[in-house]
Design a protein that fits this description.
Chain B: This is Mitotic spindle assembly checkpoint protein MAD2B. The complex is a heterodimer. By secondary structure, chain A is of the alpha+beta class. Helices cover 26% and strands 18% of the residues of chain A. Chain B has 5 helices and 10 strands. Classes of the chains: A alpha+beta, B alpha+beta.
Chain lengths: 247, 210
């Protein structure tokens, strides 16, 4: 602040001290009043026609505890898994979820879908699981051994990355009944814990696809062959290269 | 270097293709980072030369694909102003809104050499920002779900027909409850300017999440 010079008559009635006091008061900063919070008189959300749009169907919900796929119906959550399946759920069975159940009409799983199907016999059929995710940390992971020489050479020849995804394909030639093998595989999900794996059944092709990292693919393949008692050869394929290995 | 003009190709379609591809990756990543779904359903993939987490759950993937398939015509015609990924609590009140504000320049003249590499670099930066945004956001309450809101430039009802491209995937006007947020905190994440599109991403976060 610049210096302030006070001029006064020596003989004035008001004394110097009071003049100084008065000047100091004048030089004090103005008190600031905080402005009130601005609240607009108009609604913060514009009129209805400017509201955004959204899909009528709610996003799927996946329960982390049991991996149960649920869908919303109004405000309630509807489980698509049967109570019996709930009962044999284990804590290890993380994220076992299910594909859209084509047997249940959309009107049953969504709140505002305009489709209204009459209830048919197929509506009451149990859900057919067609998709699985395997948990980490199973026995295969714990007893991990290096790749066999043959497989290691294959990885080098094709310059595969160890965390690249590979796919085992189980066809009808490997078993009599793909559905039966799929059920066995689903059961073994809970006990085995195949690392980095997820699997799905391609019902229209009568094939089971088991995806895993290249690193574990050999072990996963052997496990599948032994555990599911597959006959013939199962093939391992990778993106772009196609079939690269058979067991 | 070839210079392309509006007559050479449908720019709207190019922009819509690029943006929808980006939005798909971004939505998956947001759902992973904000823990809307269990981490077990996500797998690490590579996009724009950076690691991203993508869901491998068929129903969720289908839902996201259907949503973006419907949004695409709006972006193509430059009718979509904002695409918002809203994370909602159990009571369906928004706790976080990831707002992608999109704007396309009226006059387009781009060089094909520059287009892909430059746009990819910019989109990569968005992805990287999303992947670390949990550092600046508070944890969400358990049991959250999500929805995608599309703010259109014109009245929403006018755009309803454009967006109804999938028969079994109807669209409706959102409720005010899904749009309004109490005392939101604004967190700008990233903005980009390119020859074909301008975009900015910010997060609106509810002050009291629980």
């Amino acid at each position: 602040m610049d210096d302030v010079v006070l001029h006064f008559h020596p003989g004035s009635v008001v004394g110097l001290s009071s003049l100084l006091e008065q000047t100091e008061k004048l030089l004090e900063p103005f008190t600031c009043r905080p402005p009130p919070v601005f609240s607009p008189w108009f609604p913060t959300v514009p009129a209805g026609h400017q509201l955004p749009i959204r899909p009528a169907k709610a996003a799927p919900r996946i329960n982390p505890a049991g991996g149960v796929l649920t869908a919303e119906r109004g405000n309630s959550i509807v489980s698509t898994e049967t109570p019996a399946k709930h009962a044999d759920k284990t804590e290890d069975a993380l994220c076992i979820s299910e594909t859209p159940n084509h047997l249940i009409p959309v009107s049953q799983t969504t709140s505002t879908s305009p489709r209204q199907h009459p209830e048919t016999e197929t509506d009451r059929l149990p859900v057919q699981r067609s998709w699985n995710v395997f948990t980490q940390g199973g026995f295969l992971l714990q007893s991990s051994r290096p790749l066999s020489k043959c497989f290691h050479r294959l990885v080098s020849v094709h310059r595969l990355h160890l965390h690249q995804r590979a796919k085992w394909v189980i066809t009808e030639q490997n078993c009599n009944d793909v559905e039966k093998v799929w059920r066995s595989l689903t059961r073994s999900v809970r006990s085995s814990g195949l690392p980095t794996c997820n699997a799905n059944i391609q019902r229209e092709r009568a094939e089971i696809w088991v995806f895993c990292d290249v690193l574990y693919s050999e072990k996963v393949g052997r496990f599948l062959k032994d555990e599911l008692q597959l006959s013939g050869r199962i093939h391992l394929s990778v993106h772009k290269l196609g079939n690269i290995f058979s067991l | 270097m070839t210079t392309l003009t509006r007559q050479d190709l449908n720019f709207g379609q190019v922009v819509a293709d690029i943006l929808c591809e980006f939005l798909e990756v971004a939505i998956h990543l947001i759902l992973y980072v904000r823990e809307v779904y269990p981490s077990g359903i996500f797998q690490k993939r590579k996009k724009y030369n950076v690691p991203v987490q993508m869901s491998c759950h068929p129903e969720l993937n289908q839902y996201i694909q259907d949503t973006l398939h419907c949004v695409k015509p709006l972006i193509e015609k430059n009718d979509a102003e904002k695409v918002v990924v809203v994370i909602m609590d159990k009571e369906h009140h928004p706790v976080e809104r990831f707002v992608f504000e999109i704007s396309q320049p009226p006059l387009l003249s781009i060089s094909s050499d520059m287009l892909l590499s430059h746009v990819e670099q910019l989109l990569r930066a968005f992805i990287l920002k999303i992947s670390v945004c949990d550092a600046v956001l508070n944890n969400n309450p358990p049991g959250c779900s999500f929805t995608v809101l599309v703010h259109t430039r014109d009245a929403a009802t006018r755009n309803m027909e454009k967006v109804q491209v999938i028969k079994d995937f109807p669209w409706i006007v959102a409720d005010e409850q899904e749009v309004q947020m109490k005392e939101p905190r604004l967190i700008p994440l990233k903005s980009m300017t390119s020859d074909i599109v301008k975009m900015q991403l910010y997060v609106e976060e509810r002050a009291q999440k629980t």
